[in-house]
Design goal:
521 residues; disordered N terminus; signal; TPR repeat; two-stranded antiparallel ribbon; single chain; TPR-like_helical_dom_sf; TPR_rpt; 19 helices
Length: 521
């Protein structure tokens, strides 16, 4: 039996593949195709050196060369002799990984595109001068590998994280159905949202950590308080000084007090708390009371100030007690308790005198606090001045001009004799406006109008830099318009002069109101 009869009449196997590899030509390939069906070539890694396949019946001719790969040819399947379909596969046999076109073609692989990122073809070996040019066989698997997408980035690198987060493709995405499109875009969008949210949360935590550290340096919170109380105090400081929003600051201050009251209950009451804890609690209570009073929470402010004045003298000194009585009187007046307010203001005068050194303390009657002649005297403290001014204002509200006028005149005389660096033109204008109102109530309308205009001129010196001067100017110009209209035509003036004066005053009033609205906006 020769080689060809061996191949034709033997079952497929290694011997048949060897015979085909040794003596197969183009004509014998056709014969084999009609007898055994489609041939499959599987490339594996090199195990044998370079071999040239030639035909014994014809002149020398190169069929194929395998330098980097060995060729193992198996005759697979038993198809019909007239079957020439490239897509038809054998039944119950191993998968065909290469078609006849790739096995028996002697052509070169197609050229690569310029922008093709896939790996290139296998490199050709070095050719000798007398050696014919060889050709490399490309299998179906190798062709698919050349057209495959680039490999995934190395895990752990920034390219891998970027690919992992922003990739919106998956194994089902190639189907391009509405469900898979929605599914993978939803997953991709979720990844982006999670990444952006995680970044924003980290930025917020970093900013809050830096803000907490800065606030602790500006205004340290007591370590004896609970962590939540300290956090509330930090937020209160933030909204009171860094980003002014007094209503929110007052709310956080009240939360801090609530947390401390729960802590006090755990200790067993006020007496069981340490002196350090009590002192820090009193300071926080005073701050929260002031914030509540600024945002017109008069009930809360009154309650907080009342708790302040009820504490021992060791925790609340005379100055803090005077300020607490003054705040409590202001809150009581705002709630309509004017009679109670004047008593509280008198207590504020009393404790302000106690806070003054004995050798500098003036002789005063707390019911009618008229300051003596300031010559050769030490100027009174600011707390004493504010308390005396509050008593005078309260008398004027009670329509007692006889009691309030001496208080205002003595106070204005004292303010005008202060050193230049201590003078407050806004407070002086405020006192002048009240003097004009009190004199007007005493039926001295001309003098009252003069004092009111003088107060307006004094307040105009600082209305562009200080809010207190602006408030005083608004109050004085409103009184001046009313007084000028009621006085009417007097000796030396005509109705046209009065109308012109009222128009000028209204112009000032509109300008001041516009400035106030601009600041609020």
């Amino acid at each position: 039996m020769n080689a060809w009869s061996f191949m034709l009449f033997s079952p497929p196997g290694p011997a048949t593949a060897t015979a085909a590899a040794v003596g197969m030509t183009r004509g014998t390939a056709v014969l084999l195709r009609s007898r055994w069906g489609t041939a499959a070539a599987a490339l594996t890694r090199p195990r044998i050196p370079t071999t040239t396949l030639t035909s014994t019946a014809r002149p020398r001719r190169t069929i194929a060369t395998s330098t980097d790969y060995t060729i193992n040819i198996r005759l697979c399947g038993s198809l019909s002799s007239r079957s020439s379909s490239l897509r038809q596969r054998p039944i119950s046999l191993p998968r065909v990984v290469a078609s006849r076109r790739h096995v028996f073609s002697l052509g070169t692989p197609p050229p690569r595109a310029e922008g093709d990122p896939s790996p290139g073809p296998l490199p050709l070996p070095e050719f000798g001068p007398n050696e014919p040019k060889r050709k490399v066989l490309y299998s179906y698997v190798e062709q698919r590998a050349r057209q495959a997408p680039p490999p995934d980035p190395v895990k752990g690198t920034w390219r891998w994280y970027r690919w992992k987060i922003f990739t919106i493709s998956g194994p089902e995405y190639a189907e391009k159905t509405p469900w898979t499109w929605f599914k993978w875009h939803f997953i991709g969008s979720g990844k982006v949202v999670i990444f952006v949210g995680f970044t924003l949360v980290n930025l917020y935590l970093f900013y809050w950590g830096w803000a907490t550290w800065s606030i602790e340096r500006e205004s340290p919170t007591p370590k004896v308080f609970t962590e939540w109380a300290r956090t509330c105090m930090q937020i209160m400081h933030y909204y009171a000084h860094w980003y002014p929003d007094l209503p929110i600051a007052a709310l956080w201050g009240r939360d801090a007090l609530s947390s401390l009251e729960k802590q006090m209950e755990k200790f067993g009451g006020w007496d069981k708390c340490s002196p350090e804890w009590q002192r820090h609690y009193a300071n926080l209570l005073f701050k929260v009371a002031g914030l509540c009073q600024q945002v017109a929470k008069d009930d809360d402010a009154y309650t907080s100030y009342r708790r302040m004045v009820a504490m021992d003298a060791g925790l609340v000194d005379a100055t803090r007690r005077s300020q607490s009585y003054l705040g409590m009187g202001t809150a009581a007046t705002a709630m309509g308790n004017i009679e109670e307010g004047i008593e509280l203001f008198q207590q504020a005068v009393k404790f302000a005198l106690e806070a003054t050194p004995a050798n500098e303390r003036p002789t005063l009657d707390i019911t009618k606090p008229v300051l003596p002649d300031p010559k050769n005297r030490v100027p009174p403290s600011l707390d004493l001045i504010e308390a005396i001014q509050a008593v005078g204002v309260q008398y004027s509200r009670l329509e007692k001009p006889a009691e309030s006028l001496p208080i205002f005149l003595s106070l204005l005389r004292t303010l005008q004799t202060l050193p230049e660096e201590q003078r407050d033109i806004c407070r002086e204008g405020y006192v002048m406006a009240y003097i004009g109102e009190v004199i007007w109530a005493l039926d001295k309308k001309q003098d009252g109008l003069k004092w009111t205009k003088k107060a307006l001129l004094e307040a105009e010196k600082g209305w562009d830099t200080r809010n207190s001067c602006k408030e005083c100017a608004i109050y004085a110009v409103a009184n001046a318009i009313t007084m000028t209209r009621e006085v009417g035509v007097v000796k030396g003036k005509t109705q046209e002069d009065v109308d012109t004066e009222i128009s000028a005053l209204r112009g000032r009033q509109n300008w001041l109101n516009k400035l106030s609205r601009r600041e609020r906006d």
